[in-house]
Design a protein that fits this description.
about 475 residues; seven-stranded mixed β-sheet; binds zinc ion; four-stranded antiparallel β-sheet; alpha/beta; Aminopeptidase; 13 helices; 15 strands; Alpha-Beta Plaits
């Protein structure tokens, strides 16, 4: 790790500075690919119709260990680093509010260390770093899965920066997203309203219908919408166009599809009622995360084996000052506590409330629970046995997608968390190289869970990555 500390610290800063949005991470992906190429990896850039998707390979033979790297930022989160108040950064409207600068960089570090181990040990094994664009609302990994990029892997490992250290378990939700575009007839709203047919009425009626539908869906299902076009700002014109976007979540892709079909019927009903037309544009989808207890245990053992970071007083002071800015947030919502319930959750939440940085690994227990929220890691997990963990980079409870998360992205604590995560991933990879039976057992569990059914991408074949969408 000492060999790569400087390189990784710099790469993390570079990607944080670029702060590029989904599918437009040209500089960030290039920066990572350049590092890999310089280090002797075989790099393939531009996969599955995405310029910023890449793989970097080294080694030969089985086990083939995939490490997932993300690097996209979020819009509306421009923020200076290492300050404890909101302070937009000049020259960009974006910011790394989910820590994907750290995520991708640690995976790069793990790939380098694992390659070195393969070389030194002379053992059979291949390491594949998969550069995954557009995690934030783009479902980049679903397109990679559809194109077969994960097919040759024996296991896939990844992580996510958060406020604590924990192996992720349970299943995150499958989802899909679609635009409903209504077209009507404009008219003077006072002089000739009877000639107009309002597209905005159709959007409103559709939303009313969807809100009644909520009574008749499973408690774990979710419907979210945003009106993306109100048809103009003049109330005295009958709006002849309007649009609403729906994001639908459930426990698996089949259930999402069934909900989506019902929402489409409601849209058609709204169009019928208002004598407007509706065009439905499917945007993207991702699968639920399929957990793997064999790989979860592997990650937990590695998290316990690698020494946790030690922080300087100055670093802890910064973490405390950040904590002061969001006292009303529930630390139980931290990514690292999603798999914990009951008294244990209350107790750990209280510890998180008091401590500037988490200094322990949450005891792991494999869970078969539904976790609200989605990740396109789901699609990778339906192709290859996959597991992920959360590594402490931020003061516990830091809300995701917030200026506080952006501000901490280059801090000493975040960099130490990133280096820890790289070491954990590399350690886990080494265990699989030393004992390929781990990959075999993980595959057996995967086959049991999927009942041998092949992966079906929840995105229809004709739908391509939506490069024009805003984050
Ligand atoms: Zn994220």
């Amino acid at each position: 790790m000492e060999d790569y500390k400087q390189l990784l610290t710099k790469l993390n800063e570079t990607i944080w500075d670029y702060a590029e949005l989904k599918f437009c991470e040209h500089h960030s992906a290039q920066a990572m690919a350049d590092v890999m190429r310089d280090q002797g990896f075989e790099v393939e850039m531009g996969l599955a119709g995405m310029d910023t998707a890449f793989t970097a390979k080294a080694g030969a033979g089985h086990p083939v260990i995939g490490l997932l790297a993300e690097f996209d930022a979020l819009s509306g989160l421009s923020q200076c680093a290492n300050v404890v108040h909101p302070c937009p950064r000049e020259g960009t409207g974006n910011g790394h509010g989910c820590g994907h600068n750290l995520l991708g960089t640690a995976s790069v570090g793990a790939a380098l260390m694992l390659r070195d181990y393969l070389k030194e040990s002379g053992r059979s094994g291949t390491v594949v770093l998969v550069g995954c664009p557009a995690e934030e609302g783009g479902s980049g990994k679903a397109y990679l899965a559809r194109a077969g990029v994960f097919d040759g892997l024996d296991v896939a490992l990844t992580w996510h920066p958060g406020g604590g250290n924990a192996v992720m378990t349970g299943s995150m939700q499958a989802n899909c997203q679609a635009y409903f575009r209504f077209k009507g007839k404009s008219s003077h709203a006072a002089a000739a309203p009877y000639l107009g047919r309002s597209a905005l009425d159709a959007v409103e009626l559709m939303n009313v219908g969807a809100n009644y539908m909520r009574e008749h869906i499973e408690p774990t299902d979710r419907l979210h919408y945003a009106v993306t076009d109100t048809g103009g700002i003049s109330p005295n014109v009958v709006q002849n166009h309007a649009e609403v976007i729906y994001l639908i979540r459930s426990t698996d892709s089949d259930k999402v599809k069934a909900l989506y079909d019902r929402v489409c019927k409601i849209a058609q009903g709204a169009a019928l009622m208002t004598e407007t037309q509706v065009e439905i544009v499917f945007d993207k989808a991702c699968s639920n995360v399929l957990s793997n207890s064999v790989l979860e245990q592997l990650l937990y053992d590695s998290m316990c084996a690698v020494p946790l970071p030690q922080y300087t007083e100055q670093e802890l002071e910064f973490a405390r000052a950040i904590k002061e800015t969001y006292q009303d947030v529930d630390p139980g919502s931290d990514l690292s506590l999603l798999g914990v319930t009951g008294a244990k959750k209350r107790q750990l939440s209280q510890r998180y409330r008091e401590m500037p940085m988490a200094d322990f690994v949450v005891e792991h227990q494999h869970q078969d629970m539904n976790i609200p929220g989605s990740s396109d890691v789901g699609d990778c997990s339906h192709v290859v046995p996959t597991a992920q963990f959360v590594g402490a980079c931020f003061t516990p409870g830091t809300p995701a997608h917030s200026w506080q998360m952006v501000a901490q992205g280059k801090s000493g604590t975040a960099v130490k968390g990133m280096l820890y995560a790289a070491s954990v991933l590399a350690h886990a990879g080494r265990q699989v190289v030393d004992d390929p039976q781990i990959a075999v057992r993980a595959r057996e569990e995967f086959i049991r869970e999927t009942e041998g059914k092949p992966y079906v991408c929840p995105i229809p074949p004709e739908v391509l990555p939506n490069m024009n969408a805003n984050s």
